[in-house]
Amino acid sequence: MATGGCDERQRVATPLTGFSAPFVFGRFEVPADNPLTEEAVELGRRLFYDPRLSAAGTTSCSTCHIQRLAFTDGRTTSVGVSGRPLAFNSMTLANLMWGPQRFFWNGRAASLEEQALIPIQHADEMAQDLGRLVAELAADASYRELFETAYGETSPAAIARALASFLRTLVSSNSRYDQFLRGEIALDAQEESGRKLFMAHPDVKVSLRGANCIDCHSQFLTGGFSARYDGFANNGLDDEEHLQPGLQVVTGNPAHRGLFKVPSLRNVALTAPYMHDGRFRTLEEVLDHYDRGVRNSSTLSPLIVEADNRGGPAGGRISLHLTAGEKAAIIAFLHTLTDQDFVTAGRFSDPFASK
Amino acid sequence: MRKAALRMPVLLAVAAALGVTGWWLYRGARPMDLALYVHPFVGPEPLVLNESRYPNPGGEGRFTVRDFQFFLSNIRLVSATGAYVESDSYHLVRFDGEEPAAVIVLHDVPRRDYERIEFGIGVDAAANRSLASRGDLDPNGRMAWTWEVGYKFVLLEGALLRGDVSEPLVYHVGFDESYRLISTDLRGESLDSRPARLDFRVDILRLFQGSTTVDMAALPTVKFDRADAALLARNFAGLVTPMWPDASGQPDGARRADK
User: B22: pLDDT confidence band, cut at 50, 70 and 90?
Assistant: First the structure.
């Protein structure tokens, strides 16, 4: 790869300083071969917003991942360059370093770096040829300089690493729930009631009412669990006959049929429609599904079948038996997960937008 | 010349002897890795996930296991000359059907004549109340309840099948008071094999067979009721037992005392 510019010195990327995340989010890992640097993140941000990543020059990552919608697109399923609706709903990009470290709804990418190049080349998404993209970017002096400093080359691997670096910085940690966890504010009575329901698996024996959200959505991150495939679940959307392959595509394990990635619920009030296929338009519909719309199948978790605030009989209909007030409280709590800083922060925004 | 010719083999022999001794001394002084293998069983049978082959220990029907995992923590090896204490010793022992056994590797274990190995089933009270991610403890993981309640110590999920009826089984056993320390005698057990390993059996049936035998139909779930949790937690002492011959750990001792 030819080096550009007249600077003979080896350019050295600047380690990203001041990057932090809440203690309660727990450990996170940045790959040793792709450390977070200022240049990598800046490069990734430009690439994320650059329509040159698509063959027609019309579609960027940000077409389907819009900041003000917490990096979702408001559509049932996304639409890329081909105009054909895709199979899946656009997923939020908040807090990707925590939770399942497999990406896409069915977990088909094993890292953010691997994930990053897939939509670029997908015929319906961006339909871009990587060789052509590298040539285009290398012809742009400002890109060439950033690539050179960040990775020493303009290449598909560098594009993947840069996009992954930017994605890793998309941390949402200043919602009202975060402020509550930091002890800065109190939630109001309805939100607090919703929080408790969210965090409880129901147990009639001790008069504990719950909505068992926490059985899949972790208490602080409100996303899927990170270990192994713990962050993938069959949430009862379809019966046995209509169960989609889901994670089984990746693992080949029949026990993984119909399991999809558990998304972060950060900013969930902004990320409608919901589920991997965007079938629910509102949070009310989502709550109604979990309350009394769950369909049984062979891979449905016993935790969902068994969760019943009335302690239903064996073999009976699956239902949480929540009250209307309880559902409203849970939705009120879900609204505390909205992080205005995240959806307006300049550092996550379009660098090409006219100021 | 003849003297020199004689000297040579002697020198070589001495050098070889020194080499062998030195290697033994070096090897003896070098700490080892010790692997603990935990083999899952349901009674006499190895655990196979998602198969309805195991009889309900206290009643009718057969049960399947979909998920089984537990915390094994605070591992210590005790000898007359000192103890090896693993730091941040919180291991989530889990069986996902991919490997026949779960393996915990203890690193840099000094070579000594250990008298016993100790570990806990569950999470000690201090760690159970903490939000720190130590070892496999993860407040955002599947074994976390909430920060008010702490961790599930043992998780067993599956279904009980009676005729055509399938009923979910959910056993989440936690609470500080459920934590149990197990001590197993190591005398006579050579840890000098290469690689060094100890094999244990974890038997799901033991959870349900204590002073009373649990009918899963009568008790299909254990979650937040402390008396129910205590009923299963009492059996933690016999949950994990040594697989080597003539082992006489505390669990076996405890069982003898019951008789």
Answer: confident
The DSSP call for residue A85 is B
Q: Into how many domains does chain B fold?
A: 2
What is the domain range of residue B12? 1-30
- Helix H or strand E segment including B35: strand B32-42
Strand-pair partners of B118: B76, B183
Residue A240 and residue A334 share a domain: yes
> Domain range for residue A293?
176-340
Q: Kindly state whether A204 is in contact with chain B, defined as any CB-CB distance less than 8 angstroms.
A: no
The interface residues of chain B toward chain A in range 4-43, judged by CB-CB distance below 8 A, are none
Q: pLDDT tens across B114-154, in order?
A: 999 999 999 999 999 999 999 999 999 999 999 889 999 99
Torsion angles phi and psi, residue A322, rounded to 5: -85, 155
Residues A189 and A330 in one domain: yes
CATH code of residue A60: 1.10.760.10
Which of A127, A143, A172 terminates a domain? The answer is A172
The domain boundary, picked from A172, A192, A208, lies at: A172
Give the pLDDT means over successive 10-residue stretches in chain A (355 positions): 48 88 94 96 98 95 98 97 95 97 97 97 96 97 96 97 98 98 98 98 94 97 97 97 97 96 98 98 98 95 93 78 97 98 98 81
pLDDT value at B183 more than 50: yes
For A72, list phi and psi in degrees, rounded to 5.
-120, -175
- Report the first-to-last Cα separation within chain B, whole angstroms: 79
**A198 and A330 fall within a common domain:** yes
Q: Tokens in use for B174?
A: 């936690």
DSSP A65: S
pLDDT(B247) > 80: no
CA atoms within 13 A on the CB side of A116: 23
Tracing tokens 């030195």 back to the chain, one arrives at: B22
- Identify all chain A residues contacting B163, using CB atoms and an 8 Å cutoff: none
* pLDDT, mean of residues B42-53: 93
Given CB atoms, is B209 within the 8 Å cutoff of chain A?
Answer: no
B220 touches chain A (CB under 8 A): yes
